[in-house]
Amino acid sequence: MQPRPNPSCLLLLLWLAGTLAAQTSAEVARRYTSEHQAQLTQAFSQLLSIPNVAADPGNLERNANVLAGMLKQRGVDSRLLSMAGAPPVVYGQVVVPGAKRTIVFYAHYDGQPVTPSEWEGAPFTPVIREVDGEQRIYARSAADDKAAIFAQLTALDALREAKVSLRANVRFVWEGEEEAGSPHLEQILDASRESIRGDLWLICDGPVDQSGMQTVVFGARGDAHLEVTVYGPHRGLHSGHYGNWAPNPAMMLAQLLAGMKDDQGRVLVPHFYDGITPLSPAEKEALARAPVNDQMLMNSFWLGHTDGGGAHLLELINQPSLNINGLASAQVGARATNVIPPTATADLDLRLVVGIDWREQQQRVIDYIRSRGYFVVDNQPTREILTQHPKVALVKRDEAGYNAVRTAMDLPIAREVIRAVESARADVVLLPTMGGSVPLGAMERAAQTHTVTVPIANYDDNQHAANENLRLQNLWNGVETMAALLELR
Ligand SMILES: [Zn+2]
């Protein structure tokens, strides 16, 4: 007798075929990570156990070689882009015949220096702990930024296992000197212009929005520094014998700095806000939709008030800022003495937005200092200078500044990134800029490209501090996001 196909069985097969075909790359990635979670956690731990701080170039090189090997194992054409005196950039590329576009995935494998005594456990002995019922992995660079690298590699594996083919050429550029300020990145990229060119650079670094939602960020603030020193007597003087007569530089500096801002935190330095490129309608709309996390953050940081006259954090990071990074004059606590100190110094950090040049912003602050009656010098003042001018300020410009960058959210390729990420994650936050600074300009110049940042780490990841950690669910979600981005065409 001829076996007759069971109609319900046929229907099931058809349904199965349909769901498999309709699976998005993010769904493919989700299945892959849930099936291989133990193995993946193990492999990620192994990567995190290789020390990756600037003071240890031998191990940085080891990281680079291991990563290049991981790319090769996956059939990715890989090599190191090296330059004397700098950790190598790990480079990989997948050429897709007939592809119209090239997408470059940027991340970095180096981490911030560690002080092991501050860690619960050891920075390069990854350990998993439960926090609020969720697993987190603790190690230097668990979040910043090996998570992104591992998510990209895992997304490749997931797509490959499901036989999903890439549609654009894909390149990987993994830097080894980001935490040291990327001093050689532009030079290394310049020397390999053809290899690193792309229609888009995806910057996979940093934390997602504090709400925990997947975030796509279209720019970063620029950054510039100034160090200001003002002068009192040439040597410390007895505060009783000379108090009320010898000017105190700590007080002079306090008054100078206090004049730079009003009590709402608005900068009073003339022209400080001049030239800002306004947000586009799409950027304004994105900001209006973004979650407001201010109250939660105030609780978490123990803050009783905020600057900005009631404006939200996300609005305020779209403006330039003036921050005192640190102040120093004489001593406090057990080392305090009754003295009129010889100098007082402040380190100032200027964050910038698009439309403001970093050198000009430094100049505006210097002009303000002059307007307060200071004779400004850029070298240690001599006795002559100090006696001939009532008030003298030494202002050192940090020469390593750079401008802000913002990619328009409505560029066709930017829209495709948004679509891809939204296909992977239900709720997506779009932000015109991040508050922090990344030398996106150097990347855009060298690669003649646009940049869009897609971070995956949790915001409370202790990035740059002791006990850095990654919430494992952020890693799994990140693999899905990377898989969706690997499918850009
Ligand atoms: Zn980073």
The total of helices stands at 17
Strand content: 15-25%
Q: What is the C-level CATH assignment of the largest domain?
A: Alpha Beta
Q: What does the overall shape look like?
A: elongated
Bound molecules: zinc ion
Helix fraction by DSSP (H/I, runs of at least 4)? 25-40%
Average of per-residue pLDDT values: 94
CATH homologous superfamily (4th level) name of the largest domain: Zn peptidases
Count of discrete structural domains: 2
Biggest β-sheet description? 6 strands, mixed
Low-pLDDT segments:
none
Can you describe this structure?
With 489 residues, the chain is an alpha/beta fold. It has two domains: 22-220 and 404-486, Aminopeptidase, CATH 3.40.630.10; 222-267 and 321-397, Alpha-Beta Plaits. 35% of the residues lie in helices and 21% in strands. It has helices spanning 7-22, 25-35, 37-48, 57-73, 146-161, 185-190, 193-196, 239-242, 249-258, 281-289, 294-301, 313-316, 358-371, 383-388, 412-424, 440-447, 472-486, and strands at 77-83, 86-94, 102-108, 127-131, 134-138, 169-175, 200-203, 214-217, 219-220, 222-231, 237-238, 321-328, 339-340, 343-352, 375-377, 392-397, 405-406, 428-431, 450-453, 469-471. Strands 1-2-6-3-7-19 form a six-stranded mixed β-sheet, with helices on both faces. A five-stranded mixed β-sheet has the order 12-14-10-16-15, covered by helices on one side. Helix 14 links the parallel strand 15 and strand 16. The radius of gyration is 26 Å and the shape is elongated. The mean pLDDT is 94. Zinc ion binds at residues 108, 144-145, 178, 205.
